[in-house]
Amino acid sequence: MNNSGRLFSAFLFGPIGIVYLLFLLAPIGFFLSMSLFRYDAFELYVPTVTSENFERVLTDSYYREIIFRTLKIAFLTCFFSLMLGYPLAYFLARSKSRWRGVLMFLVIAPLMSGIIVRTYGWIILLGQDGAVNKTLMTIGLISQPLQILNTEIAVLLALVHILMPYMVFPLFSALASQDPDVERAAGTLGAGRIRTFIEVTLPLSRTGILMGTALVFTLTAGAVVTPALLGGKDVQMLGQQIYDLILTTLNWPLASAVAFVLVVCQFLIIALYFRGGRHGPM
Amino acid sequence: MTQEPVLEIKDIVKRYGDIQALGPVGISVREGEFLTLLGPSGCGKTTTLHIIAGLTEPTEGTVSMKGRDITALEPPQRDMGLVFQNYALFPHKSIFDNVAFGLRMRRVPKPVIKERVDRVLDLVGLPDVGSRYPSELSGGQRQRVAVARAVVIEPSILLLDEPLSNLDAVLRKRMRLDLREIQQRLGITTIFVTHDQDEAFEMSDRVILMNNGGIEQSGPPEEMYDKPESQFAAEFIGEANLVEARVVAIEPGALKVKVAEAIFTAPAGKMAVSEGDLVTVMVRPERIEVSKTPVNGGNTLQGKVTGRVFSGDQIALTMQVAEGLEILCSKPSTAHYRDLRLGDPVWISADDCWVLPRAGVKTEGAK
After folding, report:
1. CB distance A93 to A179 below 8 Å
2. Rg (alpha carbons) of chain A, rounded to whole number
3. Dihedral pair phi/psi, residue A172, rounded to 5°
4. Strands B345-349 and B289-291
5. What's the pLDDT at A282?
């Protein structure tokens, strides 16, 4: 690249680079150093170098369980979002129906109300006297109201719903950018619909699957409000743990260590994931 | 040829809502034939091809192959290879896997696949690209791979949907010959769709000219060029001087028509005419003789040179022969034609002319 090209690149990347430096890397550096400090009940933290916060996060079974649950819920949310989102994205990308625009709007619609509003919506639906229990009891499927709130199911259900747009849009754009003749070509060469899907459509939507699942995974792993409101004390996840440690317990060093573990987990999983997903020139 | 057609489509109609896009159209294709569907965009040629391939369902009519009705069959059940306009190679598969795809779907054993893919890549002149990916090939190479992928399954019919239109002019000319050669070598029945008359003529045994969702005329290239049956056919294929004339006499095998003040004798075509009818006389620009000295006899007009374009090997002359009537002539640029200058009085003879119905009127009996 010549000099003016380099300058132009710098110009393009400059602004976002500065924003990242100030508001992403600096805070990460800040909480990384905070995670090495010692907690003190009176001074909040003492700036020394200690590994006790990390030791606690990684050895205390309480935290281990939360880390495990967070990753489990993130995986399951990803899985169900993909299973439900893919057919929808496929329909949106291929359909010539005039309902396409309406459906597109419905997919975005959840983003228009706040996450707290949507979460409260689920409380109304899933509560002891909520619509789901009322309906099931009326049709006689159950005699006692089910305990849905404060379970992992409630958290999973709400997360899948709330994060659906983040799954559908990358999938949609990957599917919509495929040349429809490529699928037709597979057909003329003797591949039925299922073979065509497995051999052509699915691999060609790989970038969309990677993007969508990565987005949903990271957003779930870092979720705070939804698990706090729908999971209660029984379904603790890392995001909400950090929130509690900072605002209630005021143990900033420990909160930083938990946050650091969360970021590293996410980073490692996503990095491994993208490495594994890369093959052949596209 | 009395042979049964390999493929026959009958009374095919395609409607989208109230709009009739195609038909009724009937075509039968002989074994080993290279047939071209030629026509402007929107004439229905691609729709026809897609109906043959099973990608589009006809509203009415039947498609049959070797006497068997295949109208209801899905593309995978049809024994055809299709080359798409944009090639539609699988971008995520290597060239080898692209070509092998159809064989894998037919559960051909691996060693046989290897052998057949190698052989067909050899045939299209790309023996060493198996491990590459489509994005690493040039347009012409991708085109060859698309052909290889379609013929490796040894289909009864090869369908080509404007496969040359995305190539540059030089490559396009070479690929015409190459495609034709591959077709000849395999002896595979081929239906080719194009809007390019040169392509159609250079490659085909037979051309079907389509317009407005119907068949305008069909026949071998020479016949299409010499004996167009409509003004559309005359204008779409090559260049033509089209002059209005009146039938003055009907003789066995010939017509006498009055062009401006002159009498022309033309072969009587399939057209039914009677004395006094208005018709169109067609003269191809290269079949005109121009003389600086008076010429006597029929099929001659007098005029003067009003335009002259010299383009190296060719020279194009425009000559006014009557008020509002200009004749175009294009000739090899020999000394005789080069010496003609603007304003020169000239005598034009057109012994080789052809009579067709006036614009908008179709020849009776012609389909």
Report:
1. no
2. 23
3. -60, -45
4. antiparallel
5. 41
Give the mean pLDDT of chain B. Answer: 90
Strand partners, B290: B348
Cβ proximity of A37 and A50 under 8 Å:
yes
SS3 per residue for B337-355: HHCCCCCCEEEEECCCCEE
Subunit contact A189:B92, Cβ cutoff 8 A: no
Chain B partners within 8 Å of A199 (Cβ):
90, 101
Q: Determine the Cα–Cα distance for residues B247 and B256; give it in Å rounded to an integer.
A: 6
Strands across the sheet with B34-38, in order?
B80-83, B157-161, B189-194, B34-38, B206-211, B214-219
Do A181 and B106 make contact, defined as CB atoms within 8 angstroms? no
Q: How many CB atoms lie within 10 A of CB A154?
A: 25
pLDDT attached to residue B62: 94
CB-based contact (8 Å) between B96 and chain A?
Answer: no
Q: Quick: pLDDT tens for A193-232.
A: 999 999 999 999 999 999 999 999 999 988 998 999 898 8
3-state secondary structure (DSSP) of residue B37: strand
CB proximity list for A202: less than 8 A, separation 6 or greater: none
Separation in Å, CA B149 to CA A93, A173, B82, B168, B274: 27, 28, 9, 22, 55
Q: What is the pTM of this model?
A: 0.82
B100 touches chain A (CB under 8 A): no
A93 Cα to chain B: minimum distance (Å): 18
B82 interaction partners in chain A (CB closer than 8 Å): 184-185, 188
pLDDT in tens, A91-149: 999 888 888 888 888 888 878 888 888 888 899 999 888 888 889 899 988 888 888 88
How far B116 CA sits from the closest chain A CA (Å)? 15
pLDDT at A280: 43
Tokens 């028509």 correspond to B257
Q: How much of chain B is in helix, strand and coil states, percent to nearest 5?
A: 25, 35, 40
Q: Give residue A281's pLDDT band: very low, low, confident or very high (50, 70, 90).
A: very low
Give me B97's structure tokens. 């896997």
Q: How far is it, in rounded angstroms, from Cα B84 to Cα B277?
A: 46
Whole-number Å distance between alpha carbons of B353 and B241: 10
Residue B364 has pLDDT above 60, yes or no: no
Quick one: which of B156, B147, B151 has its CA closest to B79? B156
Q: pLDDT tens digit string along B77-122?
A: 999 999 999 999 999 999 999 999 999 999 999 999 999 999 999 9
Separation of alpha carbons B75 and A282, rounded Å: 27
Task: Give the chain B residue whose CA is nearest to the CA of A179.
Answer: B88
> Quick one: residue B23, left, alpha or beta (phi over 0 = left, psi -120 to 50 = alpha)?
left
- The model's pLDDT over A150-162, given as tens digits with 9 standing for 90+, comes to 999 999 999 999 9
**What single string gives the DSSP state of each residue in A18-35?**
HHHIIIIIHHHHHHHHHT
Q: Which two tokens stand for residue B250?
A: 């009907």
For chain A, the residues whose C-beta falls within 8 A of a C-beta of chain B are: 179, 181-182, 184-192, 195, 199-200, 203-204, 206, 280-282
ipTM associated with this complex: 0.82
According to DSSP, residue B280 is labeled E
Contacts of A277 in chain B (CB under 8 A): none
Confidence of residue B173 (pLDDT cuts 50, 70, 90): confident
The pLDDT confidence band at residue B46, using thresholds 50, 70 and 90, is very high
Average of per-residue pLDDT across B299-321 = 91
To which residue do tokens 């057919």 refer?
Answer: A87
Give me the numbers of helices (H) and strands (E) for chain B, helices first please.
9, 20
